[in-house]
């Protein structure tokens, strides 16, 4: 570690002063900066600010309440959810005064630990605001209740890795969904359905995956594809809220296409997909509710689908 001064942080909604004192002594911390609200017992939980202050002073550790600097931010620095916005907070007078006081304390030889009530370091203000602002001038060490610690850069790396994993999962899920919709379209056209539209959007949450016609009846088909049934069958993902959204989209679609007098029903196609030669497809016809009640279920697998094209483009959309 380089020669920059060290700034410690600690967060725990259940702050136990008896456990905190040994942790502070281990790192030779002689000053605690408390970012918790002094009069909010729901937040303070086990140890109030007055109790913490008195106990720390008995152990020759200075105590400074800093909620006014790093806890209560001006309304114009908050987003619509009430969370502080970094680029706004770091320009506020209250925050900058707190930063200046921290630097003065470090300059006087104090080893400072900032504490708050947030267990999750990644979501804490001591990481997202203070640590980010001071990471170039201080080595930020986040102490953990188990006695271990993590650095500002390590937390940032953990967040980046989580985001990368989530992006990969989202990308994989999208690819799987597209594959499932192609399989469903192939199955439908092979069985006498004419595809009218795919991925028709009313707005977010109100999408119709496949709209198909057979025997002068429109089928609005929700397609659910999963790689495994470990977390439940894919058709179980269609809940009452989803059915309500589908119904809203159907109402608008029928009105725009002037299909008022054509009979229709809601279907679901559920696919467990391993590869193009290993999957199962269940077609639930005429859903009657989110409990999977329907008039009929048709089961298919690759062995029952003869000579199906793989690109899903063997349908002619209805002109509109």
Structure explained in plain terms:
By secondary structure, the protein is an alpha/beta fold. The protein is built from 9 helices and 12 strands. It has helices spanning about 15-25, 40-45, 50-60, 65-70, 85-90, 95-105, 125-135, 150-190, 240-255; strands at about 5-10, 30-35, 60-65, 110-115, 140-145, 150, 195-205, 205-215, 215-225, 265-275, 280-285, 295-300. The chain has a 6-stranded mixed sheet, sandwiched between helices. Strands 7-8-9-10-11-12 form a 6-stranded mixed sheet. The radius of gyration is 29 Å and the shape is elongated.
Low-confidence stretches: 305-320
Number of helices: 9
The whole-number mean of residue pLDDT values reads 86
Across the major sheet, the strand order is 3-2-4-1-5-6
Would you count the extended β strands for me?
Answer: 12
Binned, the helix content reads 25-40%
- Major sheet attributes: 6 strands, mixed
Share of β-strand residues: 25-35%
Q: How far from one another are the termini?
A: 67 Å
Global structural class: alpha/beta
Query: What's the gyration radius in Å?
Result: 29 Å
Order of secondary-structure elements: EHEHHEHHHEHEEHEEEHEEE
Shape: elongated
